[in-house]
Amino acid sequence: MSATGSTPASVIEESLPHQGWPASDGEELPPGIGPYKLAWRRLKRNKVALAFGGLFLAIVILCLLAPVYANDIAHTGPNQENVDTALNAFGLPKGPTWHAHYFLGADNVGRDVAVRLLYGGRTSLQIGAEATLITIVFATLLALLAGYFRGPLDGLISRAFELIWAYPVYLLGIALGVVLAISGLDLGFVKLSGNSTQIPAIIIGLIYIPYVGKAVRGQIITLREREFIDAARQQGLGHMRIMFSEILPNVASTLIVFIPLIMANAILTEAGLSFLGAGVRPPNASWGTMISDGINLLPAAVHTMLVPGIMLVLCVLGINVFGDGVRDALDPRAKIRIEH
Amino acid sequence: MGRFIVRRLASMIGVLFAISVLTFLIFQAIPNPAVRLAGRFPTPATIDHINQQWGFDKPIYVQYLKTMKLIFTGQVISYTQQINVVHELWVLLPVTASLAIGAGIIWLSMGILFGVLSAWRSGRWLDRALTVLSMIGVSMPVFFLGAVMSYYLGDKWGILPAGDYVPLQSDPWQWFVHMLMPWFALSVLFIGVYSRVLRSTILDTVNDDYVRTAKAKGLSERQVMTRHVLRNSLIPIIALFGLDFAAVIGGGAILTETVFNLHGIGQYAAQSVSALDIPPVLVITMFGAFVVVLIGGVVDVLYAYLDPRIRL
Amino acid sequence: MSTDGARGGSTDGRLLEVEELRVSFRTEDGVVQAVDGVTFGVDSGEVLAIVGESGSGKSVTAMTLMGLTRGPNTSFEGRAMFAGKDLVGASEDELRRVRGAQIAMVFQDPMSSLDPVYRVGDQIVEQIRVHDKDISKAQALDRAAELMEKVGIPRAGDRLRSYPHEFSGGMRQRVMIAMALANSPKLLLADEPTTALDVTIQAQILDELRTLREDTGAAIILVTHDLGVVADIADRIVVMYAGRVVEHGTLDEIFYDPQHPYTWGLLGSIARIDRDRSQRLPAIPGLPPSLLRPPKGCHFRPRCPHAFARCTEVPELASRLPDAPAHLDRCWLEPEQKRKLRQVGDQIGLASRETVIS
User: What's the pLDDT tens digit per position in B169-192?
Assistant: First the structure.
């Protein structure tokens, strides 16, 4: 790598198609292409990212089809304990048979690992998606309020971000997990029991709000100083209007880049919390609880640990590589740089 | 510089206070706390004693003060386990510290190494290979990696001990050997992140104007890289490291400690969670956040030292 | 740096001779021909201005002289002879010895051109010590203070310890100039040195440059888009458009007898005090062509109101004025036609259907 870098930025900029060019040689140049269309084109050229995105999609579809698999192929439910058929001569759970029954083996109480894998996947994916939604929505709202209005509101929200972010993720997760497992969540309009799978989703969603919130707030503050906001204000547009029609579209690309990132983190965090017993609680199962159970069986029945683990890694890998591709497509010069 | 430090200290104290309040409030949500805290076979006497100590029948600010007093005077007792929590933490600290410091050194040095290599050979196979490794590292839950390593390298092939902790004082070599797997398991995620962040920072910095100026001065490739590109690129890495290290020491190594059975602060927290034993979780959560904030403050000062633009 | 003997027998003395320089970049969308056959020369002690708009290739030309455009996607043709050696084909080692010593460069944006984490004094010292391994740090610092004083930075001794962000824009640019002059270069390349600065500071910086030329006898290549800046300081002017030199002459020749429509457009759009203010400021309509797929023939043809059939053939860069053999231009029009066409009202300018503010 040479320290001169490469093509001077000015040359790159000057060589891009301008909109409405005077014809070079009697030919019309195409009208300007919007940034999202350009990004989509770039993404389509990135075969690796697409492949991994497909991998993730495949896993999602498989998990959604869990009942179909359970009923029509494996002929057993996720919680059905078939001790007699599932254990081998030594009383140990069967390993992967690669047949319809016990395709990926059985666990120590005779349940079909493949079936549990798909059902557990639904839980993990659902929590991941919910948490991501919570994070993105609330972080954006708070960032808008803080970054746009500044002043004491910003002070308050920023402090709140700092506060929550100060806690190591898992400590906060288990603290909240423990407390809410005992007491459930009662906000008046919504009541959740300690065993609900919404609780880990809410906790994880909450924990990552500062992460997204701080980044978006920073961007909004920069945007706010730009002329087009002044122009909008002079036109008499109200604050709400400006926030949603001027500022929001500009942070959209940052949010798009964040979504896969948060989703990957959420799934991993849920697995970790469930492994520690502070996430998904029995009788529900997720990939995290399955790995935990599998580890407890070691050194026997290693497949009970490996199967959910590998599935989890493949799923998160799919999201990460695809997310990377999305980020590259939106900004090939990687101006949007996000840590972890 | 001095003024900056004072200001940072002041805001830190504010944050620490806020953390103590927030942590306290989180645990307020538990119903029947005295009974919960009293352990498996609560006697009325014990419950009374607990109520008195923690002030559960008193107004909330009194409770807060009593709780803080208990924590800071080291009097928090876990009845479920019949031990003094703060004392226990003190005993377990060396484990977590060994894990954090060792892993920190590994992930920082390897993260930087891989980042520089990736940027140097950007686009070629080494870069691609390292990127693949990073992606996998970042996608792997540490407890799963730990379990796999422990099972294969430990139980199955016996290359390294499968877990447990040997104190440094009693047997340095064994201490080292036992820590190897936990160190690597914990580092993998961070190496993945750091190498990619550094790579992209370097590739951006290389296009910065002052790098062009450095070249125009007649500096050699190597001089430009070390004196200007790296010097600027490493700043965000150092800041990141400070925060991550703080999080790990503060209790973020829970998963690693549990999977390798290291009996550190993290595992203690995890066990308390399983047993629904509140006092340790409360104390550890608070101290964890404290550590993060303190080290965060140190990192900020360090950052200001490294990047003079921040000192304003 | 070794001089491979003087060229030919005469001490022509041309410090720099650029011959048919071509620079192209391979990009995601194709090959960009940023510089397309540029030829000019610079004598010791003279100020040559390279004038053009963004994308004309003027910056790329200047940076190529120092080898700053080299990269895996860049291709070069042509030569740039400096003191007997070809800069375009020189090795990195050879170039490194030239950079900062015989040829120095001042860049456009002084804020981003100085490393933010090092003190200003240390950065100047770095420039000195790269080419003088024996000088001590203390001595180099003294020299740095002297240089800063010379370019008009007050309290230079104290300011050595300041960081770039602690200076104002104009001061930063002076620091850059001080740094560039540290090793008494024979040639100073100034790439839009005043563009990022206020107009009043602009004048000061130009003064600095002028004084420097007088004091040190260095030649200056001043790259700019602003003909007004040039009028004050240049001896000769090279006008570039879309990668090519379209006109080349002395200051007077360009301002009083311009031979290329693009030059007329540039001159016509200078804001002047003596202009009739009831009219809008004229600008050259249209945009510069894409360097990915440039127009056939003369690059200015699509925007030129005087284009005719022959313009689809690339005009040679040559002198079409018998009594000014060094005044070159790239336009097929006859000199008499040019003299008529360039008169717009009572000034020189580019006639067009409408005059709009761009």
Answer: 788 888 888 889 899 999 998 999
DSSP 8-state assignment for residue A73: I
C25 CB within 8 Å of a chain B CB? no
**pLDDT tens readout for residues A161-171:** 988 888 888 88
The C-alpha angle with vertex A98 and arms to A95 and A104, in degrees rounded to 5, equals 45
Pair type for strands C244-250 and C236-241: antiparallel
- A5–C71: do the CB atoms touch at under 8 Å? yes
Chain A residues with CB under 8 Å of B151 CB are: 298-299, 302, 305
Q: CATH code for B89-307?
A: 1.10.3720.10
Complex confidence, ipTM: 0.84
The whole-model pTM stands at 0.82
Q: Which helix (H) or strand (E) covers residue A151, if one does?
A: helix A151-166
In eight-state DSSP terms, residue A245 is I
Residue A29: its chain C contacts at CB < 8 A? 290
CB contact under 8 A, B276 and A278: no
- Which among A169, A183, A316 has the least Cβ separation from residue B30? A183
Using CA coordinates, name the residue in chain C closest to A27: C295
Among candidate residues A134, A167, A123, the one with its CA nearest the CA of residue A284: A123
Domain with CATH 1.10.3720.10 in chain B: 89-307
- C-alpha–C-alpha distance, residues B77 and B91, integer Å: 15
CA distance C249 to C236: 6
Can you tell me the distance from the alpha carbon of A249 to that of A216, in angstroms, rounded to the nearest whole number? 12
C112 touches chain B (CB under 8 A): yes
What pLDDT digit, counting tens, does each position of B192-226 carry? 999 988 998 898 888 889 999 999 999 998 999 99
Check CB contact under 8 Å for B216 and C109: no
Do the chains contact at A18 and C293, CB–CB below 8 Å? no
Give alpha helix (H) positions in chain C.
Answer: 58-65, 92-98, 110-113, 120-131, 137-150, 156-159, 169-181, 199-216, 227-233, 251-256, 261-268, 335-341
